[in-house]
Design goal:
Layout lengths: L5 H10 L4 H9 L5 H4 L13 H11 L7 H23 L10 H14 L13 H13 L13 H6 L7 E5 L2 E5 L12 H18 L4 H13 L14 H18 L12 H9 L3 H6 L16 H7 L2 H13 L2 H4 L35 H4 L9 E2 L2 E2 L17 H4 L11 H6 L8 H5 L18 E10 L2 E4 L1 H5 L1 H14 L7 E6 L31 E4 L2 E4 L1
Antiparallel strand pairs: 1-2, 3-4, 5-6, 5-7, 8-9
Length: 547
């Protein structure tokens, strides 16, 4: 029972036989708690003369209440005992949390409901008695302690619990002491709604204990859960519930350190309210609420390649080595195909140019050596695959000139030409749109800077990015194609200034601005076909235009 509770004092006085009128009169005169009534006079329990107590009582009541004097004596002894016990608890802290009286609980809950107009507190949201006692314990200790969200139980769950609090009797200094272990009831924290409800129960319990206000704490709760609904940038994951719980735990650690010894300090705002508002944007709290990058979890460690070999028998190892030597080179060169050991890309393999195909439209393998002009078979196919171009799938080799340093190891000539170069050399001067359109079937596609996977994009000429510039490798690898594209642009727009030419097919991009263009040098779009179901959206000073 609290010695500073007006509701507990009034309820105890009426229970002991004091009339409601006398109890209310004492409260009106300023004697509203047990701690004040215990020191209403200089009289001490056990003294022979109780005249100071009677005189003080008459002064407060304005009359001699002879019929109620036994009840007032009983109330005085109760108040005095509670006051002495409170001083003892401060010097010798209890092992279990102090429990409020039922009258005090009801009074605090009623005052809380009146303060939160429009906010419904049902039995699922009302904090349990054990949670309120825990908050009151923090107030008496003057310091916040550990309080997990799973311990923020509801009154509903507490009433549904069939377990009774066990009592332990033990003998200490010739006195029998009764102790009750803490309850093991836990709250559900499996979803964001359950976690938010637990946080609100904690805020309500702190409000009932008088160490914080629910309005200030609920603002922080809404702020934390608002991060879970915020949109994130591409490549990031939304803020998860575990991050919100981690941020909440970090915040209360900082608040506990800041308010240690100042929990019951009077003033507006309360110390905990001020600390929560000050630390809500602390670096540690903000870091816990940052969106995480997708795929940031490190991959599991790969098993050692020698672990399986050590366990193999000698005969099995020989069979595997023999099978690896007799395996065709074309099979080992298939990109992404697992090797005999089960891992991808284990050997060096054969380098193939970007955009090259490993199989034709019917799923049949293509001979890589034929495209490198190194196959010793002149038939339509060999044991490695069919003799077709790995770019256009036509009956010619698709060798590409990378330079002497690229093919010196396999004996290739640097004069080998890509089939796109051979095709461009047969174009007219200037070429026609139909001729340029045929390049889409043989040119190796590149990953577009803007667009979606699967869109065709091929660019030649110069590049510029972040103040740096240079010449694209397609200018060296496809000089004939570059000349044909340049000649076509010159034939359409002789006065146009440009440094790069690109071919696009089925390209869809988001609205953007080409910031690297020189002043007075806009982009030039030339359609090679009368395409449909597409348009170009241009925005300028006079407004938007669609083409």
């Amino acid at each position: 029972m609290s010695v500073d509770s007006q509701a507990a004092f009034r309820a105890e006085a009426i229970r002991l036989g004091v009339s409601e009128a006398h109890a209310d009169l004492l409260i009106t005169k300023g004697i509203r708690t047990h701690s004040l009534f215990a020191f209403i006079s200089s009289y001490q329990p056990g003294a022979s003369d109780e005249k100071p107590f009677v005189d003080a009582l008459v002064a407060k009541l304005g009359e001699e209440a002879k019929d109620s004097l036994p009840a007032f004596r009983h109330l005085f002894y109760t108040s005095h005992t509670l006051a002495v016990q409170e001083l003892k608890d401060k010097l010798e802290p209890r092992e279990e949390a102090k429990r409020l009286s039922m009258a005090d609980r009801v009074d605090r809950l009623e005052r809380l409901k009146k303060a939160l107009v429009g906010f419904t507190i049902d039995t699922w949201l009302e904090p349990s008695h054990s949670l309120v006692d825990k908050a009151v314990g923090f107030a008496e200790e003057g310091c916040l302690g550990p309080l997990e969200l799973s311990r923020c139980t509801s009154r509903e769950a507490e009433m549904r619990s069939e377990k009774r609090d066990p009592e332990t009797f033990r003998l200490e200094k010739l006195n029998i002491k009764v102790t009750k272990p803490p309850t093991t009831l836990t709250a559900d924290t499996s979803s964001d709604l359950h976690v938010r409800t637990c946080m609100q129960r904690r805020a309500l319990a702190f409000h009932m204990a008088g160490i914080a206000t629910f309005v200030a704490l609920d603002k922080i709760i809404s702020r934390f859960f608002g991060y879970m609904m915020r949109p994130v940038y591409p490549g990031q994951q939304p803020v998860t519930l575990s991050q919100v719980v981690d941020a909440d735990r970090t915040l209360w650690v900082l608040v506990a350190q800041e308010t240690r010894g100042k929990v019951l300090t009077s003033g507006t705002p309360l110390p905990i309210d001020a600390a929560v508002d000050a630390f809500k944007d602390a670096p540690d709290v903000a870091f816990a609420l940052m969106p995480r990058t997708k795929g940031s979890v490190p991959p599991p460690p790969k098993p050692s390649p020698t672990a399986g070999a050590e366990a193999m028998s000698r005969a099995k190892r020989r069979r595997l080595q023999k099978a690896a030597k007799s395996k065709p080179i074309a099979d080992s060169a298939q990109p992404g195909k697992p090797s005999a050991g089960g891992s991808k890309g284990g050997g060096k393999g054969i380098d193939i140019p970007p955009g090259a195909k490993t199989r034709d439209d019917q799923g049949r393998p293509i001979c890589f050596r034929y495209n490198r002009k190194a196959c010793d078979q002149s038939k339509e196919k060999c044991q490695r695959g069919y003799h077709v171009c790995w770019f256009c799938l036509k009956n010619h080799a698709g060798a590409i000139a990378f330079g002497p340093e690229k093919f010196s190891a396999v004996g290739h000539s640097p004069t080998d030409l890509h089939c796109a170069e051979v095709l461009a050399s047969s174009f007219s001067s200037p070429p026609t749109a139909k001729q340029l359109l045929s390049l889409l079937d043989v040119l190796p596609p590149e990953v577009p800077a803007r667009g979606r996977p699967g869109d065709f994009s091929w660019t030649t000429g110069s590049w510029s990015k972040d103040g740096c510039y240079g010449l694209r490798r397609h200018s060296h690898m496809f000089p004939t194609v570059t000349s044909a594209l340049t000649a076509y642009v010159r034939s359409i727009a002789p006065e146009h200034t440009f440094t790069a030419v690109a071919l696009f097919a089925d390209l869809q991009t988001a609205p953007h601005r080409d910031v690297n263009n020189a002043v007075g040098a806009p982009n030039l779009l030339l359609p090679l076909t009368e395409f449909q179901e597409g348009q170009v959206w241009q925005y300028h000073e006079t407004g938007p235009s669609w083409y």
